[in-house]
Write a sequence for this structure.
């Protein structure tokens, strides 16, 4: 085989980079489970009719066929899932009889999209999704719950830059548009689609397009003023009332309900806000996906704004229904690869070692491998990851072997009784190769500091 | 959407079943990391020329294409990987300049095979692979190492039935065949292929086929006698010498080397053997894959023999080479889905709860949700998974809500000062709903027994 080359859009990580991704996944999972979310996995494959219901991503689907497909199975119509929401809705319908509702689940899985690889876009990437799904009804406090859980998880990733979670509510937007006389569904959808361009186009350009779509200039201006409301606290209701008039709010139960849900959400997460963690009402957030019916989320990462939203979701009241029963849900999805891959490739973020081993057990000579194995076994029995040197090189070379991998400690086994050990001592010794300190140690009791047990990931600024 | 149905060959687990699989994966990962194996993931997709080099699985490959593929990218020739060994060999070649050798890695990932779904065969399944790869050379003690690591991991899965790891060595087999006058590579391959059928066909039938392949009857008999050697200790060398004659062994360095490696391996893992864990030399094990060059492994699970080998691998001296440098390796692959799916579907193995929550915090009324949330936050701060009741039903209904999910504890928050609580006490109380015991408790200090912190999986016999 000649040297293989990377496939564009299919990122692969080196071991010390994968350790960063693994710590992200471990932290997410721990927080999700502390909040009672059960982990599931869905198959990678869905029937095309399930995948293509969400029309705007049809172009991105990867189709599957067997190399030697038989006539009867040909064109069976299966593809790889492009998100975890559509398969989860299918899972809920398929297994509803065996699930307890409200059903909280998380999913940490790869998804595939056949789109053109470009900045921050991958063809294969890992997502972390949490959703709560009810049967028939799902109270609004679950919108607050999923927000809190995801913010709690992201806050604990202390090597992440700061971030801003932007929240809006579709009831608020649809209610406000109705108050402006915009009620035709096709017009409402088109206005939302144009407002969603505000992060890419100047406001004046969007305004021109709104007028071209049939809005009079004053209404287009109000639509943009509404989208311009961004506030970190629950003054959002007052600002909307200022813009549209208190009568408009009082006269629209949908607008009032949206405002109430949005204000409740901001109050419900206020205690999680800090310098790195911001939550704002941002009335320009519309989300492209038409299944959202209430709360919608996007998230921007400081210094990585070009990535777009790294964590998105919302409330969907009718994504999963079998005709008789409807399963309303609310969820949020964090783009693990979308964040981790740029962090490791652009900023050089990596674990401080490329192996799990905290200790390299040195090898005096090949005949004494059992003695070194015994030291390793004693350390592992107390959950200290370690490895035995691959060959009995000079100890200086074995120390460099550890250095190249970032292993912090080298263990020198006690010389056999009656011999003079290379370490100059009759006891086992362990060297911290960062400080050079070398001390006598007992394999049955020596323990490294907790922070040395696992590879460490630190933000580049702190290193 | 009408009710979706399962896809044959793509197993999906319910939450309490997925908890079993998750515990298997967690245990494997912990053991692999204690032994210094670094976790990596490779992309799901490989170029077809990489996938099809291993000819005998060509029929099983799933090809990928984009739904709206453009002319220039059409027939680019990518497929889903069908194992983790081929992608790992490609990863080593691609990233060799950034890796330290010997390189120990584990991979816990899904693979796909488009074969006809049948008993124990899936089209999508999870594998757990460990390999050690060297640059140019890799001493034989690494064969012992990967065996020990995998046996250590499987032993710790105490809900698994007992198992037998069967070990053979291709050098031994090829050397022995040469001593019998069988040296033509095509003949050796054909004899190995026929011997590999011994677990499916009667020996007499295999003998007939050996003779049909050109062996004289005596040689066919000796080939079968050799394959019949099964021994749990290092008497294997003596038994081969008895069969072929000491001169044959002395006259074949390859045979002697194979015998020495096999005996060393059996001695090297002898201390891990117990009632549930057996390791035997079994000279009928040949493995279908032609890249193995020394040690080969298969594993049978007690009571699940129809699954075939659940854990297989071996030594490959030339799987990865770029023409200038060769990377010899030894590895072993455990079929996680192949074992977990039959255990949960046939024996009903499942975790004792369907959610991670150890505690359901009850809700007195919707207005007191913040008080229940505060209890939950205090428990989570001490890493106790919990959830707050979804609605303020009667406490009896909330207890049944916990029971249906298998949550062992229900927490009754203290009534607000000045009121008489439903619990009849002014303090917080926690009830173990299995025993009915209810005691006063402080959210800042109450801790359940360690075994209640996580969902538990027990072998059915023990339940």
């Amino acid at each position: 085989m000649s040297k293989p080359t990377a496939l564009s859009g299919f990122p692969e990580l080196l071991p010390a980079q994968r350790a960063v991704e693994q710590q992200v996944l471990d932290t997410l999972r721990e927080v999700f489970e502390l909040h009672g979310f059960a982990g599931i996995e869905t198959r990678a494959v869905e029937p095309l009719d399930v995948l293509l219901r969400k029309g705007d991503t049809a172009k991105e689907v990867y189709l599957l066929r067997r190399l030697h497909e038989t006539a009867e199975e040909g064109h069976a119509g299966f593809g790889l899932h492009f998100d975890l929401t559509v398969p989860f809705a299918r899972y809920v319908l398929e297994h509803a009889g065996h699930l307890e509702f409200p059903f909280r689940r998380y999913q940490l899985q790869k998804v595939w999209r056949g789109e053109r690889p470009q900045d921050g876009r991958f063809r294969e990437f890992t997502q972390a999704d949490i959703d709560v799904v009810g049967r028939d009804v799902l109270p609004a406090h679950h919108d607050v719950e999923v927000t809190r859980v995801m913010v709690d998880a992201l806050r604990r990733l202390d090597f992440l830059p700061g971030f801003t979670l932007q929240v809006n509510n579709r009831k608020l937007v649809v209610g406000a548009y109705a108050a402006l006389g915009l009620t035709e569904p096709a017009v409402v959808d088109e206005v939302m689609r144009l407002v969603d361009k505000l992060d890419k186009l100047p406001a004046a350009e969007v305004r021109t397009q709104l007028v071209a779509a049939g809005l009079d200039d004053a209404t287009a201006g109000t639509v943009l003023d509404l989208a311009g409301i961004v506030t970190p606290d629950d003054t959002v209701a007052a600002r909307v009332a200022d813009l549209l008039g208190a009568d408009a709010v009082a006269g629209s139960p949908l607008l009032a309900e949206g405002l109430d849900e949005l204000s409740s959400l901001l109050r419900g997460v206020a205690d999680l806000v800090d310098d790195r963690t911001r939550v704002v009402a941002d009335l320009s957030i519309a989300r492209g996906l038409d299944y959202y019916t209430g709360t919608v989320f996007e998230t921007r990462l400081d210094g990585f704004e070009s990535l777009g939203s790294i964590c998105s979701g919302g409330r969907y009241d009718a994504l999963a229904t079998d005709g008789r029963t409807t399963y309303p849900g609310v969820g949020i999805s964090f783009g693990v690869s979308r964040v981790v891959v740029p962090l490791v490739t652009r900023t050089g973020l990596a674990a401080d070692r490329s192996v799990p081993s905290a200790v390299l057990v040195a090898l005096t000579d090949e005949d004494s491998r059992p003695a070194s194995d015994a030291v390793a076994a004693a350390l592992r029995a107390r959950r200290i990851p370690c490895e035995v040197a691959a060959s009995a090189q000079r100890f200086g070379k074995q120390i460099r072997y550890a250095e190249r991998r970032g292993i912090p400690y080298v263990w020198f086994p006690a010389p056999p009784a009656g011999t003079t050990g290379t370490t100059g001592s009759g006891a086992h010794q362990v060297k911290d190769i960062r400080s050079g300190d070398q001390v006598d140690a007992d394999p049955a009791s020596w323990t490294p500091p907790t922070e040395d047990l696992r590879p460490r990931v630190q933000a580049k600024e702190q290193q």
